[in-house]
Amino acid sequence: MSILNRRDAVARLLKERKDALVVTGLGAPSYDVMAAGDHDSNFYLWGAMGGAAMVGLGLALSQPGRTVLVLTGDGEQLMGMGGFATIGVAKPDNLVLIVLNNEHFGETGMQPSHTGQGVDLVAVARACGFTSSKRILDETGIEKLCTSMHLRDGATYAEIVIGTDEPERVLPPRDGVFIKNRFRKSLGLASI
Amino acid sequence: MTMANKSPPADCDWQHQILSTLKRSGVEIIAYVPDAAHTVAIREANEDPDTTAVSCTTEEEGIAICAGAHLGGKRAAMLMQSSGVGNCINMLSLISMCRFPLLVLVTMRGEWAEFNPWQSPMGQVTEQSLGLMGVQCFRAEKANEVVTQLEGASDSAFNGDQACALILGQRLIGRKAWVK
What we know:
The structure holds 2 protein chains of 2 kinds. By secondary structure, chain A is an alpha/beta fold. Chain A has one domain (6-186): Thiamin diphosphate (ThDP)-binding fold, Pyr/PP domains (Rossmann fold). Chain A is built from 8 helices and 8 strands, in the order αβαβαβααβββαβαβα. In chain A, α1 (6-15) packs parallel to α7 (139-148). By secondary structure, chain B is an alpha/beta fold. In chain B, β3 (75-81), α4 (92-98) and β4 form a beta-alpha-beta unit. Chains A and B meet through α3, α5 and α8 of A and β1, β2, α3 and α4 of B.
């Protein structure tokens, strides 16, 4: 079994996004999502490390009728470990936290992260009360997630195990005000 | 020993006015890290059917939750203690970079009549820290100014599109009983 390619996995998921709202953690996950095609309902983080899942939580609570996909990396999520507990208690039905796990801090020089050294975020999510927590190793798992991410039947954690390859960077817009206003406009909201 | 004031001063009605004032300002989501002086507001937020209360493990989570709520079109506010301001510093870059409105209510420690010296280093630079990260601070020192100050902070945040904090002074909160 070959290890999943991050770009292919993200592109496959986003092809099935329907009306889902997307938040990305800084670094490679933002490039992966941008490579799959820019979208008005994407909110890309370029900083605020550890905050992607919590931005997603606030969004999920304010848009309960929409699926919210947070796509981030293992390093970014490790910086927000407490967020697992916060989501587990808040119980947003429509939040899907997807961690692309390459077991490394890719953006800063591919230093090994904790997830390659015994730290199991799938178990953390399960212990914190996520309704579903799965590790995805193959395309069958991706296909299942394409469907289950739209169910909105409880907080979902999905960890996609990927390799350490670094595809060419596809940079999303980095003007935060622009990204925010564009995102809100896609929901019919004024800039202020 | 608990963190709660055993005998709150008679003029503590302001604590009951926090949630109602926030609701009048259109706030529907309250993120919080507990503090004794936020006890009433946190309880009321959890009991109120029209308010979503989110218990955070650290204050920076609440900053990001408020940003996400605004993205989705709802008003949120964050309740925290002064010691938690330091935990928020880098997350506040999210607020300034995207010019998110922000409303934070900060209960003070480490200033008036403090018993625990460990509260002082952060308490004495709370407003400066917020200011350095672009958060405008308003203060309430007396019970009868809490509502007005909170309404003003809320207007500046949500109508003026600013990052704002209401600092609830330690003298307002009252002396903390340490021996029970």
